[in-house]
UniProtKB/TrEMBL annotation:
Single GO MF descriptor: NADH dehydrogenase activity
Any single Pfam family the record assigns to this protein: Pyr_redox_2
SUPFAM superfamilies named among the record's database cross-references: FAD/NAD(P)-binding domain
Residues annotated as domain FAD/NAD(P)-binding: 65-393
Domain of life: Eukaryota
Database matches in Gene3D superfamilies: 3.50.50.100
CC terms in the record's Gene Ontology section: mitochondrion
Stated name of the protein: FAD/NAD(P)-binding domain-containing protein
External alternative NADH-ubiquinone oxidoreductase-like C-terminal domain segment(s): 421-484
InterPro entries assigned: FAD/NAD-bd_sf, FAD/NAD-binding_dom, NDH-2, NDH2-like_C
UniProt key word tRNA-binding: no
Keywords recorded for this protein, A-Z: FAD, Flavoprotein, NAD, Oxidoreductase
Family: Belongs to the NADH dehydrogenase family.
Amino acid sequence: MNKTRLFQQKFFRTKYHEALLTMQSMNLLTIPTIKKTSYDAFISQTASSIMLRRGMTSLGKTQGKLVILGSGWAGFKLLKDIDTRHYEVIVVSPRNYFVFTPLLASSSVGTLEFRCVVEPVRRYSPKIQYYQAYADSVDIKKQTIHCTSNLNNKKDKFTIQYDTLVVAVGANSNTFGIPGVGDYALFLKDISDARKIRQRVIECFELASQPNVTKEEIPGLLHFAVVGGGPTGVEFSAELHDFITQDMARLYPDLINLVTMTVYDVAPQILGSFDQSLRDYAIKKFTRKGIQIRTGTLVEAVNERHLVIKDNGNVSYGMLVWATGLTDNPLTRAMGEYIIKDQSAKRLLTDNYFRVLSKDDGMPVNNVYAIGDCASIKDYDLPATAQVANQKAMHLRKSLTRIAKDGGSFENVKPFKFTNLGSMVYIGEQKAMVDLTSTNVKAKERGTLAWIFWRSSYFTMTISLRNKILIPMYWILTWFFGRDVSKF
Ligand SMILES: Cc1cc2nc3c(=O)[nH]c(=O)nc-3n(C[C@H](O)[C@H](O)[C@H](O)COP(=O)(O)OP(=O)(O)OC[C@H]3O[C@@H](n4cnc5c(N)ncnc54)[C@H](O)[C@@H]3O)c2cc1C
């Protein structure tokens, strides 16, 4: 350290010490004892203490306000890891928690309790600010976001300003405009959906047990239909089958032989993204369990009691779960007026740095990013998965830190490259499939070993220590005592 720097530090140390003592005497500081420590310690003590007193969040944030819309895989990963020394972080999301979607199907049948698969956003307060609200629209020129509170008795409108915006609002389930789906089908996107499914399964069994129900009505009530033969539909069917055969069979022995389960898909095969041999294995296992697979089948309409199948008439059902396809949500639809969208998937189109592209000139908008299911990179098609959303969020976090360190310059930011880590799917009765054929490893595994891998991978990926304790605890409880069948 040179002499001038030493002199500066000594000088400032004395001055800061005097200033701190004065501020403390004026009751402006919260530091209990002020010692002559290092220059850096003085600076950080003063700054953090003043911030605490005044509730300020932006002191020293060179990059200003970073607003993150959404608290799903993409938004939550970013808000959790972003360097708040550079950015004043504001999160806007209608739900104040993150949902660990790979274990949502387990929670919908009670293998896990709902609490095990959520993480509260507020855990990261006061490092970040949070508003429970929907973002309705974004004014890119004025750098403002118009929001509506999402609280029971409060639907207030308010506007917030941003310097940098990250859109991570995910996508909605696609009903493809099929009449009745929105009214009568259940979805599996959020914890509230999982709760509805669990209640409905139990309700179907209770309805079928009522004294005045006719024999003809029972098979319809106990027909569980799933539309969508992708990983979500297959995993849910597998979990539901476990629940019915392991728990409901014991509690409703007279009804169990009347239960049917069907997976419908308009595509010619289920699990289209998996290796052919694994697909065949899943079909064999499902068929053996008695789960019917109806591929190449179009559901034309849905009413309160029936699915209307093209060329096949009406099929009664007790519960219908719709697990097929995604479409844009209202915010990304509204942004489509001035941002280029991928026409087929209806996602916001971005460059390799996740910057959205303006409709005016096709150029990237420098301070507006889109990641996760609501966005796709131009000429770089990636699936709408948690894996992609997570990697995009990690990359964006690095880019934003780089920009902050380089004083706002974009020069050293690297383009995104996806690393495919393979796919996994649970197929029931403690069996799963792991497909790494799309990676460099070229491996695939199925059966119980794959199930152990499936469970341990997701267990490792859970975020909080609380859930790392709760999840294995519920797995063990379910193993010993079965799933809870109370309906409330
Ligand atoms: C049951 C299920 C199982 C899955 N299993 C896997 C799996 O095993 N592996 C895998 O890779 N992928 C899996 N996926 C897919 C994965 O969950 C999604 O790809 C991932 O959630 C996308 O992350 P996201 O952050 O873009 O969107 P989401 O996680 O959907 O989050 C969107 C967020 O935006 C919020 N939001 C919505 N509208 C607004 C608005 N207007 N303003 C502000 N906030 C808004 C929402 O409340 C939510 O917090 C699964 C999906 C489901 C449904």
